[in-house]
Amino acid sequence: MKCRPLTRFVTGALRRFIELAILFTTPAAFSQPGQVPAVARTGTVIIGSISISGNKTTRETIIRRELEFHASDTLKWPDFLVRLTQSRQNVFNTSLFNFVTVQVLPSADSSRADVRIEVVERWYIWPIPFFEISERNFNAWLETRDFSRLTYGIDLTFNNARGRNETLKFLAHFGFNRKFGFTYRFPYVNRKQTLGLGIGGGMEMNHQVAVTTIGNKPVTVRNNDIYLKKMAYAYADLILRPDFFVIHIFHAGYSRYEFDSSLRATPGFSLVERNVQQFINFTYFIKDDHRDVQYYPLTGYCIEAELNHAVPYAVAHNTYLRASLRFYLPLRKRFYWDAGVTGKISFAKEQPYYLQRGLGYGRDFVRGYELYVVDGQHFALFKTGLKFALLPQRVDTIRFIRSAKFNTIPLALYLNAFCDMGYAYHYPQGGQGNPDQRNTLENSFLLGYGLGCDFTTYYDIVIRVEGTMNRMGQWGVYLHFISPI
Length: 485
Known about the structure:
Low-confidence stretches: 1-7, 13-40, 430-435
C-alpha cells in the first residue's frame, strides 16, 4: 500500500515523457474518433437536420458521402444508433480528421432526431525528407564515409487537395540512386461519388541492383560509374466505390526497363536476351473492408483480391492471383484476437527475378524471418495473434499548444503473443533444381512465433517491437511500423 504514491508518480512521469517525445518526433497528430452517445429511446425516429462543423478545408459533400443516413429518413432507434456508429467510423477512416464526434441533439419531439457532426481536421501538407545509405548498414558506411553512395531527396504529399480528399504526391531522390515521380488520386469525379481516377508516372536509375538470391538473402551487383538499371513507368486507375465498404480498382500500367548487359549474365534475372524490356500490365483489385479503424483494427474483417496480367507475356511472365482474408475479434476484458491468411498463385513456372515476389516483401513475411527472402511462384501465409490492451486507447491534451491539429495525444499500448506459418513453392528451373541449393527456405515449411508490444499514437502511426523465434532456432528483436495483420 505504501508504494502506490511512488508507483503513480513514476507511471505518470513516464507517460508524460513518452507523450512529449512522440509529439516532437512524429509528423502529425492522430486521435481516436469521438464516441457516439447512447440514446435511450424506442420506436421509430425521423431524422431531422444534419449539421457539420469544423471542416474548414474539407468539402461537406465528402463527409456526407460517408453517412449511412439522410435527412427525412425514418428508422428504428436501434438501427439508427448502429448507423450513427458506423457513419462515424466511415468518416474517420477517410484519414482526413483527427477527431470525429457525432451527437444527437436534444429535441422536444421524441420521434425526431437532429444530428450534429463535429470534425477536427488534420494537417494535410507533409514534406518528408528521404535519406538512404547504399551499404549493408550505417556502420559499414562509417568505415568509408563515402558521400557519393548516399541517396537523398524529399517526398512531398498534399492530402485532401482542393478539399475533395484528393491526394497529390511528388518525390525527388538524388545521389547514388535516383528516383522521380508523381501520383494524383481523384476519389470521386461524378456527382454520386462512386467513380474515381488515379494517374501516376516516374523513373528510377540504380547503380545497385539485386540479381539473385543466395543463402536466402538477396545478392546485389553494384557499379559506381554507370546505372545498371533504368526504369520508367506510367499508369492510370479507374476506381469504383459503389457503397461504403467495397472498392474496385481497374489498373493499366506501362513499364520500360533498360538493363546493363552484365545483369543478364546472372541466370534467371531475365528470361529474354534484351537490354530493353517493356510491357503493359492490367490489374483488377477488389476490397471489401469492414474494419473499425483501418490503420490498427480491433474488430471487423477485410477481404482483398488482385488479378494481374502482363502483355507481352513472354517478357513479363508476371500473371498472378493474390487474395487475403483478415478478421479481428474482441474478446472479454481487453483481450483481442486477430488472424489473417494470404495466398498467391502465379500462372508461369518461370518468372524473371526482377519481377518475382515470394515471401519477404511488404506485409508478406513470416515473423522471425525478417532478414530473409523466400523466392517462389506460389505462397501461402497464415498469421494469428492474441493481444491485451495494457493501456486502452485514451486521449491526453497538451494545453500549451493551441492548435487542435497538434495538441491532443492519443495513447494505446498492447501486449501480444503471435504465431505465423508460411510456405513458398519455387519451381525447379530447367529441371535441375534451384540454381543455388543453399536457398533452404524455398519449398519448406516456415514457422515463427514470439511476443511483442504494439504502441499506437497520432494518426496511422504504429510502433511495434517484437521478439521472435523461428523454426531454425534463431531469435531476434525487430521493429515494425504497420499493424501486424
